[in-house]
Design goal:
This protein is α/β, with parallel strands linked by helices. Helices cover 32% and strands 23% of the residues. It contains eight helices and nine strands. It is globular, with a radius of gyration of 18 Å. It binds adenosine-5'-triphosphate (ATP) and magnesium ion.
Length: 253
């Protein structure tokens, strides 16, 4: 079934980034990076391993210090989004995956105010139930330790957590890399549906250039920590731009 992509007007951007520079280990990873993240749009970030895609998302969620400016237009005061306004699915969990915590505990950690050693409230789980169902996490996984989940199952759980409460801005770092091929299309449709129904602005890192023109409004091509091309997928994912972003081997043959 073809994915139906909402047509979006360009209003004021959801995020404006100007002259962004981020150092990691004393080395510049992002340099002089400027772009706008269109409100209500699905923006895909593409580029080679190590070019700075995750660093960009992690900077947006406040993990790294930076110079330059990042201006958000979500939240009440339109400058400092609270966690409620932004959903984020990292490329990998930064907690020790062998910690003896279950999916239910993870839900408690994310949703309730008191420590989970007092128990995970049924209310917290009930609140997340629609999101879990939507992303295809069956109730049978609730009591599975997180290190027992498959990569795709963990990514689905993380996406459900990012969807409750409903975010204005959803940042997804390779959200479908663990999702099996038969579900890729369903996953892409789900993102288009989320964007469609509530106008959620979505930024996702993807290596799947073949499907982006079906469901992304805008593509940012990153190379060496800089944006070297951006625009609508049909305009940007040309053999020339792909060769520039990924090197000539990417379009050979
Ligand atoms: N502490 C550090 N010190 C020095 N360099 C670092 C440090 N942490 C990360 N880097 C480098 O930053 C660069 C960007 O990393 P990042 O995770 O943003 O890449 P990416 O584009 O998301 O790659 P991938 O497609 O593999 O996920 C990499 O070259 C990485 O080696
Ligand atoms: Mg990455």
């Amino acid at each position: 079934m073809p994915i139906s992509l909402a047509v979006r007007d360009t209003g004021p951007p959801m995020v404006s980034i100007r002259g962004l520079r981020v150092l990691r280990g004393g080395r510049p990873i992002l340099s002089d990076l400027s772009c706008d993240i269109g409100r209500g749009k699905i923006t895909a970030i593409v580029g080679l391993n190590g070019c700075g895609k995750s660093t960009l998302l992690r900077t947006l969620v406040g993990e790294f210090a930076y110079t330059g400016s990042i201006t958000f237009a979500c939240g009440e005061d339109h400058s400092r989004p609270r966690p409620d306004h932004v959903g984020y699915v990292p490329q990998r969990l930064s907690i020790e995956s062998s910690l003896p915590i279950t999916v239910r505990d993870l839900i408690g950690l994310a949703q309730q105010r008191w420590p989970i050693f007092f128990g995970v409230s049924r209310r917290a789980v009930r609140k997340l139930q629609p999101a879990l169902e939507r992303v295809g996490v069956p109730p049978s996984l609730l009591d599975v330790p997180i290190d027992g989940l498959s990569g795709g199952q963990l990514q689905r759980v993380m996406l459900a957590l990012a969807l409750e409460p409903k975010p204005e801005l959803l940042l997804l770092d390779e959200p479908s890399s663990g999702i099996d091929f038969k579900d890729q299309q369903g996953f892409n449709s789900l993102l288009a549906e989320i964007n469609n129904e509530s106008g959620t602005t979505i930024v996702l890192v993807s290596h799947d250039l073949n499907t982006l023109n079906q469901f992304a409004h805008h593509v940012l091509c990153l190379r060496g920590g800089r944006i070297i091309a951006e625009g609508a997928p049909a305009d940007v994912l040309t053999p020339e731009a792909i060769a520039q972003t990924f090197g000539p081997a990417a379009v050979a043959g």
